[in-house]
Design goal:
Strand content: 15-25%
Number of helices: 9
Largest sheet: 7 strands, antiparallel
Oligomer: single chain
Structural class: alpha+beta
CATH architecture of the largest domain: Orthogonal Bundle
Order of helices and strands: HEEEEEHEEHHEEHHHHH
Distance between the termini: 149 Å
Helix content: 25-40%
CATH superfamily of the largest domain: Transferase(Phosphotransferase) domain 1
Radius of gyration: 42 Å
CATH class of the largest domain: Mainly Alpha
CATH topology of the largest domain: Transferase(Phosphotransferase), domain 1
């Protein structure tokens, strides 16, 4: 059977007058339509006048529960969410039974889903990709510390706030949308129990899909982090969400490409022999001050000195010969 299309709470919501439908102390403002295993509403709590998301699940569904986790586990995890105070996880405000339904009231989160953001054709830069990834993994770390797994981490479960804050919805029994199935790791497809590494595989797969909407280089260290998170061997993945968050932050600092851009300072290429100037060279002959230095003038000076020296030597030889042999002659 074909998967039910993604439901947008804002588009498919049916307005209802306040007080037209009451569920315990909650007055329904909008009927958001069917939700997994029940129905969803936008309501207000008469006790605090606080708007909330309300999910109702008929008690009869407990006997026909076919989730990958039992009803008891999901109910216990939903109760544990009430002890979590983290900006990336909607707080569960109340779990109660009214008539024949289990009612879960949790924090109202404003903003589009990640799937809606991507459907607009928006392109993510590397900094935003890592920032959102760190926020998601930080939320998982907080949930895992309370023994809560997600199991259905997809683009529909991620809400992007107006300031770029990321909220991860859909924990426990709070799922509101019929999103496509999450990327299943090999151990889950084999029927093994879910673990924190299962969630890390899901968030790693989600971030890898987001890399197609960004411009990452092939040797970017971020890709190495995501490859480890989505390893087929659970033991090869990160030991915890906190460790994966640290790896993402390290990747954000490890990559500093510096491509040449117009207007940037660059070192010109020097051609051999071009614009070379002799700085110093050992002098084999030092002419007297005021005389020409090395070069053509220096060669002329040396020639002149040799000529004068030769003439003086010749004159001395002639004078000596005359004195020895010619002085006594008549």
């Amino acid at each position: 059977m074909a998967a039910e299309p993604q439901r947008s709470a804002r588009i498919l919501s049916a307005p209802a007058f306040r007080g037209f439908l009451e569920i315990g102390p909650y007055q329904v403002l909008e009927d958001l339509g069917p939700a997994p295993f029940g129905a969803a509403y936008l309501a207000v709590d008469d006790r605090s006048d606080r708007p909330v998301f309300l999910k109702t699940i008929p008690l009869s569904r407990q006997r026909a529960w076919q989730e990958d986790a039992s009803w008891e586990i999901l109910l216990a995890e939903t109760e544990a969410l009430g002890r979590i105070y983290h900006r990336g996880i909607p707080q569960v405000l109340e779990i109660a039974q009214y008539e024949d339904c289990l009612v879960v009231a949790f924090q109202l989160v404003e903003g589009p889903s990640l799937r809606e953001v991507l459907s607009r054709g928006e392109r993510l830069d590397r900094a935003t990709l890592i920032d959102w990834g760190c926020q998601l993994v930080d939320a998982l770390a907080e949930a895992h510390a309370q023994g809560v797994l997600h199991r259905q981490l997809t683009e529909d479960a991620v809400i992007i706030g107006p300031g770029g804050e990321v909220v991860l919805t859909g924990f426990g029994l709070t799922q509101l949308t019929f999103g496509p199935a999450a990327a299943l790791p090999p151990e889950q497809m084999a029927g093994e129990l879910n673990t924190p590494q299962t969630d890390l595989y899901a968030v790693g797969s989600l971030l890898r899909r987001l890399t197609f909407a960004s411009s990452l280089k092939k040797r970017d260290p971020l890709l190495k982090v995501l490859a480890r998170a989505t390893s087929a061997n659970p033991a090869a993945r990160f030991e915890s969400a906190a460790e994966m968050a640290d790896a993402l932050r390290d990747a954000s600092h490890a990559w500093r490409p510096a491509p040449h851009r117009p207007g940037s300072v660059s070192i010109p290429e020097v051609q051999p022999g071009a614009n070379l100037r002799l700085i110093a060279a050992p002098a084999r002959f030092a002419p007297p001050p005021g005389r020409a230095e090395e070069g053509e003038d220096g060669e002329t000076w040396r020639t002149l000195v040799l000529l004068v020296t030769s003439l003086l030597l010749l004159t001395f030889v002639v004078a000596a010969g005359w004195f020895l042999f010619g002085a006594g002659a008549p």
